[in-house]
Design goal:
By secondary structure, the protein is an alpha+beta fold. Helix 2 packs antiparallel against helix 3. The chain is elongated, with a radius of gyration of 18 Å. The protein contains 3 helices and 8 strands; from the N terminus they run ββαββββαββα. The protein has one domain. The strands form 2 sheets. Strands 3-4-5-6-8-7 form a 6-stranded antiparallel beta sheet, with helices on one face. Helix content is 20%, strand content 36%.
């Protein structure tokens, strides 16, 4: 198989109409200004068609006059968003599309001992999906936390907790822009960003063109 820059994996057959509609929905989605996206090669063996995006969330002093990351902004979370499409469907998906997401962030070290950290992190997923009102089935995922402590010459380095949140679900329909927004909100939450103030409209994200 070959990977094409238009987000399609497989041979040179025409893009199915549902997948083309999904790509258009992703292109049209508006995200908060702290989120930066770029298209990357999609997986080639899981499904005949796919598109993948990697993202980062920047946090820091906002520029005057608008919310968002300022010049001193630092990366507070990263992630990956993948859409898989198999026109024939796959039994485990319970549909013809599958959304696969990854979110990584570094949290405060005192959270390492919190027995509810995994449950809280997973609640971010369910609450983001419910809050967005996106229809989905077959939701599943994992939450992994790693405590890093330094010794010897690095003994002065503060301890840190790295959180990795993986979630996948099967969307209903081809309006996947809302699912992209859910993932962006997950990254923002993991990165410690507050919700956008009421009445503030998210700006169009800076990202490479998705799809043809």
């Amino acid at each position: 198989m070959r990977t094409y820059r238009d987000g399609v994996t497989g041979d040179q057959r025409e893009i199915p109409a549902p997948f083309a509609a999904a790509l258009a929905s992703l292109r049209d989605q508006r995200l908060r200004p702290e989120v930066r996206l770029a298209e990357i090669p999609g997986p080639t063996r899981i499904a005949p068609f796919s598109v993948a995006l990697e993202g980062e969330v920047l946090g820091g002093r906002a520029e005057p006059g608008r919310p968002g990351a300022g010049e001193d902004a630092a990366e507070v979370a990263t992630g990956r968003f993948v859409v898989l499409h198999d026109p024939d469907g796959q039994e485990t998906w319970r549909g013809t599309f599958r959304v696969v997401t990854l979110v990584r962030a570094t949290l405060e070290p005192e959270l390492a001992a919190d027995p509810l950290l995994a449950e809280v992190a997973w609640s971010w997923v369910t609450e983001a999906l419910d809050g967005a009102g996106v229809e989905h089935v077959a939701l599943g995922g994992t939450v992994t936390r790693v405590l890093s402590e330094s010794f010897g010459a690095l003994a002065g380095t503060p301890a840190a907790v790295d959180l990795e949140l993986r979630a996948s679900w099967t969307p209903t329909g081809t309006g996947l822009g809302a699912h992209l927004a859910v993932w962006a909100d997950l990254m923002s939450t993991a990165g410690g960003l507050p919700p956008l103030p009421e009445g503030v409209t998210a700006l169009a994200p800076r990202r490479n063109t998705v799809g043809p």
